[in-house]
Write a structure and sequence with these properties.
43% helix; globular; 282 residues
């Protein structure tokens, strides 16, 4: 399954649900948390329940519930108990213990996507997700809640780059996801009008080892999909590498176009071909 792009939609805006699915996104995140006011949460639960019940068989739908420590989370789980979304997004997650707690409260074995960096304690638990990998379909992060929690003025430099503490959080999630052998999902790019900046950010994410990215506006979906889809030149290189290693099965190092390549390059080439295959099938 392709999960290059994951688009947030407020749960209390049901008129946007079908439109979100029609924009070319790989998955829609129906949000019951930050984008929905306390007053509108009951409305959002009803709207999300009805939509997932109707579309779960033909669309990839993820529900972001409220944090485990809140009464709103309990209300979410009660209201959504008889539907089966593709996954549940868990905000304010604090490692394997949070995943186990949520998994034990779900009525069926729905995969979980934790947001792994939203509290100070969460940072120290990122390595524990490999212990609950069977419950996960990915791992993601965010750079909004954490700075607010610790009193930081901003998470970004003047040029838009993350400051050192948040680059660390991003890197830990990247390695934590790969340690658990699940997809690493990059966080949102908040300036939805800056498509050039988004394209550069998404390209950096893919370069670093993320396999997909979240979005907050339908206009961000196409640049994200493009960034996480191998182009013709990448596919050609990967095919050449795989073919060369297949022709010399007892060789650990080959030479292509003046470059010495070894087994990590073969692993990368296979990843590129698999990503290209998924894009073609989609």
């Amino acid at each position: 399954m392709r999960l290059r792009s994951l688009l947030f939609v407020p749960g209390d805006r049901p008129e946007r649900f079908d439109k979100a699915l029609a924009c070319g996104v790989d998955a829609v995140i129906l949000d019951l948390e930050d984008s929905v006011s306390a007053r509108n949460k009951p409305l959002a639960r009803d709207a999300v329940h009805d939509f997932v019940a109707r579309r779960a068989t033909d669309a990839t739908l993820i529900i972001r519930i409220n944090p485990l420590t809140t009464s709103a989370c309990e209300n979410d789980l009660v209201a959504l108990g008889d539907i089966n979304p593709f996954a549940i997004m868990l905000p304010k997650s604090e490692g394997a213990a949070s995943v186990r707690q949520l998994a034990g409260r779900l009525s069926s074995a729905v995969p979980i996507l934790p947001i792994a960096t939203e509290t100070p304690a969460a940072i120290f638990e990122i390595g524990s997700y490999r212990d609950v990998a069977s419950h996960l379909f990915g791992l993601t992060w965010g750079a909004e809640d954490l700075p607010a929690t610790i009193g930081a003025a901003t998470a970004r430099e003047a040029d838009g780059r993350y400051t050192a503490p948040y680059e660390l959080a991003r890197s830990l999630v990247l390695f934590g996801a790969h340690a658990a052998a699940v997809p690493a999902i990059e966080t949102v790019y908040p300036d939805f009008r800056d498509l050039d900046g988004l394209a550069a950010y998404a390209a950096r994410a893919r370069r670093d080892g993320f396999s997909g990215m979240m979005a907050i506006h339908p206009g961000q979906v196409e640049p994200i999909n493009r960034a996480f889809t191998p182009d013709a030149a990448e596919i050609a290189w990967a095919e050449k590498v795989v073919t060369a290693f297949a022709a010399s099965p007892d060789t650990g190092v080959i030479q292509i176009d003046g470059h010495m390549l070894d087994l990590p390059h073969l692993k990368l080439a296979k990843r590129i071909l698999e990503a290209g295959k998924l894009a073609h099938e989609g």
